[in-house]
Amino acid sequence: MHLPHQGLPRIFCGASTGSKSMTKLIGIPRNLTADQSDVVAILEETLSQAKDGKIHAIAIVVCMDKGYAHVMAGSRASDLNLGCDSVKNEILGRVTVAGARALGRA
User: Which domain holds residue 27?
Assistant: First the structure.
């Protein structure tokens, strides 16, 4: 996945689909789900804050129909690492709750 960046080095890019990187983003579908609309809103707000100079590093993981991709830029690796740990904990919590509901335990 290739994202535009201004002056920030592209540190790493990878995808689960076997390609080294994706060179373009596919256009946004006309009828977005609620989840997709939330993604767009988060990206728009993040872009706005980045343009205002409030963001110094970023890591993005995207889930697509046929896999995932990730990119990173910036120089605050320790902050990115802590942020990733926080996100992993939140994902685990959501998976655990969804699993409990599926098993009728919640």
Answer: 1-75
Q: What SS3 state is found at 100? A: helix
pTM strictly above 0.70: no
**71 and 100 housed in the same domain:** no
Question: What tokens were used for 62?
Answer: 């995207």
Residues 70 and 83 in one domain: no
pLDDT digits (tens, 9 = 90+) for 43-98: 999 999 999 999 999 999 999 999 999 999 998 999 999 999 999 999 999 899 88
Overall number of domains in the chain: 2
**In 85-95, which positions are buried (b, 16+ CB within 10 angstroms) versus exposed (e)?**
eeeeeeeeeee
